[in-house]
DNA sequence: ACCTGAACACCGTTCAAGT
DNA sequence: ACCTGAACACCGTTCAAGT
């Protein structure tokens, strides 16, 4: 149901290769991180080297195809949480979701941090959408006096990805702890 | 004055190669990060490939030679700060120093997180010393009621390295902001 | 005791040739 | 329109041969 669909009609064999590549990439990235060898992914998909590059000219394009939809869903989820009774809790709940999303593959935090800055990155639009909803959540928290006035959307974005990164290094709980402490640091002192 | 000295006596040519390799590695890592090609470093040092491996069997050994002394100095600096009039500020000052130290080369945060867990890592002892002083600083803060009871040394260690990581990605100030928010999250709510 | 440089296995990326 | 597989340039690591 959430097989990412290519943008346009494709020949049947092309479509099959496209989907095999995505499937192999998904399991390989999940197991070995987003830096896993593209050559090996092509091999596992039973496809020549150049075929992979034909469909995904860069590793980031492959990541976009794998994660783009989910990132847009994450942005939508954040927009929903603007209705949360507690501005602070709404932000915190979303941040935890975003972090576990960034922990899908090892190395994603780095990819997300770069993509949001690099306008040519395939993931740029999706990351911008996420940053934008972060902005809304932070603004609401500030307006309600629940979040410190000097907290910005890039702060939240960086915290989420840094916590995901820490989870990849040490242990997953370490990432969650870091996120929790950081979020508490965002709080207006009482 | 802080040229790291090899452990034992060496032949004159060996010593020269050793020092050239260290010097080239230092400038290359500073400019391009700690993942820079070892082959290219050997080339710049005017030395054959295998010579580098003779002196530094692994990239981590090279990092240890470059950073070990400074890491031990960092640990000593933390011990001094146990005398700081404010337990919280002492911890915070040290954390900022530690973070700027972890920002010496791009990629160091990752190396430090791995080294502290992997007992076979050349940097393990140095990282343990740093973790140990983090433990002392946190314990003092907790005892004084300035730091939350559930904060641990690994939390502080992870925060420092994650903030350094965030500074490598986005911008350096972003790393400092993250550290500041995280440290505030460590604070006992007033 | 130390250095050299070739050897091996691997990777990303491109591109002419095929169908 | 798409696929193939070779080609190129690069890297980490090891090791026999030299001095």
Q: Can you describe what's shown?
A:
Two copies of one chain form a homodimer. Chain A is mainly α. The first copy, chain A, has two domains: 1-57, Arc Repressor Mutant, subunit A (Orthogonal Bundle), CATH 1.10.10; 60-186, Tetracycline Repressor, domain 2 (Orthogonal Bundle). The first copy, chain A, is 71% helix and 0% strand. Chain A contains nine helices and no strands. In chain A, helix 5 runs antiparallel to helix 7, helix 6 (108-117) runs antiparallel to helix 8 and helix 7 (124-143) packs across helix 8 (153-168). The radius of gyration of chain A is 18 Å and the shape is elongated. The mean pLDDT of chain A is 95. The A-B interface holds A 109-110, 113-114, 117, 151, 154-155, 158-159, 161-163, 165-166, 169-170, 174, 177-178, 180-186, 189-190 and B 109-110, 113-114, 117, 151, 154-155, 158-159, 161-163, 165-166, 169-170, 174, 177-178, 180-186, 189-190. The first copy, chain A, binds a DNA duplex (19 and 19 nucleotides) through residues 10-11, 13-14, 17, 37-40, 47-51, 53-54, 57, 59. Chains A, B: Keywords: DNA-binding, Transcription, Transcription regulation. Chains A, B: Residues 37-56 bind DNA. Chains A, B: Residues 15-74 form the HTH tetR-type domain. Chains A, B: This is TetR/AcrR family transcriptional regulator. Chains A, B: InterPro entries: Homeodomain-like_sf, HTH-type_TetR-like_transc_reg, HTH_TetR, Tet_transcr_reg_TetR-rel_C_sf, TetR_SbtR-like_C.
């Amino acid at each position: 149901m959430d097989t990412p669909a290519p943008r346009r009609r494709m020949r049947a064999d092309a479509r099959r290769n496209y989907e095999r590549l995505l499937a192999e990439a998904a399991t390989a990235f999940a197991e070995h991180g987003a830096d896993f060898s593209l050559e090996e992914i092509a091999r596992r998909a039973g496809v020549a080297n150049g075929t992979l590059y034909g469909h995904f000219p860069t590793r980031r394009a492959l990541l976009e195809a794998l994660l783009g939809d989910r990132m847009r869903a994450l942005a939508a989820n954040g927009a929903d949480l603007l209705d949360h009774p507690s501005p602070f809790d709404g932000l915190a709940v979303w941040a935890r979701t975003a972090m576990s999303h960034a922990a899908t593959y090892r190395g994603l935090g780095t990819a997300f941090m770069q993509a949001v800055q690099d306008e040519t990155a395939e993931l740029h639009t999706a990351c911008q959408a996420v940053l934008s909803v972060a902005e809304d959540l932070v603004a609401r928290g500030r307006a309600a006096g629940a979040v410190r006035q000097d907290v910005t959307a890039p702060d939240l974005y960086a915290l989420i990805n840094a916590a995901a990164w820490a989870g990849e290094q040490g242990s997953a709980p370490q990432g969650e702890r870091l996120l929790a402490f950081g979020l508490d640091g965002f709080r207006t002192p009482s």
